[in-house]
Each structure stands twice: as C-alpha cells, then as structure tokens.
Amino acid sequence: MHYDPNLEDHGFKHSPFKSCVVPRPIGWISTVSKDGVANLAPYSQFQNITYDPPIVMFSGNQRTIGKRKDTVVNVEETGEFVWNMATYDLRDAVNTSSKEFAPDVDEFDAAGLSKLPSLVVKAPRVAESPIQFECKHLQTIRIPGNGEMGSADIVIGRVVKIHIKDDALTSDGRVDIEKIKPLARLGYYNYTYVDKQFEMLPPGDDPRRLKGLAGDRVRD
After folding, report:
1. Cα gap 175→209, rounded to integer Å
2. Burial class (CB in 10 A: 0-12, 13-18, 19+), 69
3. DSSP class per residue in 14-73
4. Domain tally, the chain
5. Nearest-5° angle of CA 194, CA 196, CA 201?
6. Quick check: is 112 in a domain?
7. What is the pLDDT of residue 220?
8. How far is CA 198 from the centre of its chain?
C-alpha cells in the first residue's frame, strides 16, 4: 500500500507514520520558568546531533490550544534545560508529566518525583532518573505546520554536564542498558524499553572511525 501523507488517505483508524520511525528515545526535559516554577515534560522527538561537543535536540509541537509548549518558552527565556533519562521503572511518572498542566504547576510534584540541584544550570534534575544532561540553549528552529498543533519548535542545546549514577554502570565502566531499561516511544499509545543488546563492529580498520563510532573524541 501507499498513501499521500498530506492527504492522510491511508484508510486506517490511525496514521502509521509515527509507528514507522521507531523506537524513539524520550526527551524528558526539565526546565524552570523565569518566575522560578519547575517544569517537566516528555518529548518523543528527541535525539543527539553530534558528540564533540555533545549536542542534543528535542522537538515540541504546539499545545492543544495552539500555544507553544511551556518547556520551549522556559528554555528560550532562561537559556537552559536538563534531559533526564526516562526508564521503564519511571514510566508512570513520565506519563503523568505528559499532561497539559497550567504553567504555574510543578510537574515534579504532580508526578511524585524528587528534585536534584544541577551544577551548571538552574533547572532541577529528576533524582530518580539514572542519567541526566545539563544543557545550554543554542538555538530554536521554528517549523510551520498544519492546524493549531502542527507547528514545531526544534530546540537545540549543548550538553555542559553529564550525571550518571554509579549503580547505572557495569563493572567495566559502561552504561548498564539492560539494568536501567531506557524507555522509548513507538506509535499509537505504545512504548517499549531496551532490555537486550548485541554488538557489531563496523567494517574497516581506520582507528579514528572506530573511535568515533564508539563515542570517543577524534581530534588528530
């Protein structure tokens, strides 16, 4: 089958588009407003852009009332945000924090989560999350879309501090993915989590390429 996504003439109950780009990491983004109110919300359109320096992005569509998300407003007004890893154990809190609360509501309290102070930025971290990135805002790219919710703000930030809990690491210093079970978004109302992994070395023997693919800096 095939269909024109601009016409949505696929004949299904729900559009399959989001179910084709899977799984998607969750950007569980914490911010603080200019008035000092903490905010926390998950974004399934999240990814790293590069690693030297480490840059991440998340994309937020509009609220159901057609206004920009509180997260985006806070980032642009304060220049800071924190990415918190969403995990299977924290799935209910992640889901609760996705509700469209009023700007003066603290989602940490609503989701029953604890705050940890950040070291560089003012936005708090999710204490229960195993990994957090403190980030400085670089730029926002505004993408026009259809309808009240269609437009999107692509928020790009530079990672300035990384926090990893000791018990989230293996004995040889790697992130213990199978233990922490990162949460990921699928299509429809479905999620998944990572509980299995396997290794494949890429073809070629260029040490710089291998080093870069492993996530290490290549500056020679």
Report:
1. 21
2. buried
3. S-SHHHHS--EE-EEEEEE-TTS-EEEEEESSEEEEEETTEEEEEEEE--TTSPPPHHHH
4. 1
5. 110
6. yes
7. 66
8. 23
167 burial type by CB count under 10 A (0-12 exposed, 13-18 middle, 19+ buried):
exposed
- Does residue 4 lie in a domain region? no
Strand partners for 115: 126
In a domain, 26, yes or no: yes
Give 13's contacts (C-beta < 8 A, 6+ positions apart). Answer: none
Query: Cα(182)–Cα(189) distance, rounded to whole angstroms?
Result: 17
**CATH code for the domain of 149:** 2.30.110.10
Cβ atoms 116, 168 nearer than 8 A: no
DSSP state of 124: P
Amino acid at 64: T
pTM: 0.92
Low pLDDT (below 50) residues in the chain: none
**Structure-token pair, residue 176:** 């213990």
Q: State which H helix or E strand residue 150 sits in.
A: helix 147-150
- Domain of 23 in residue numbering reads as 17-213
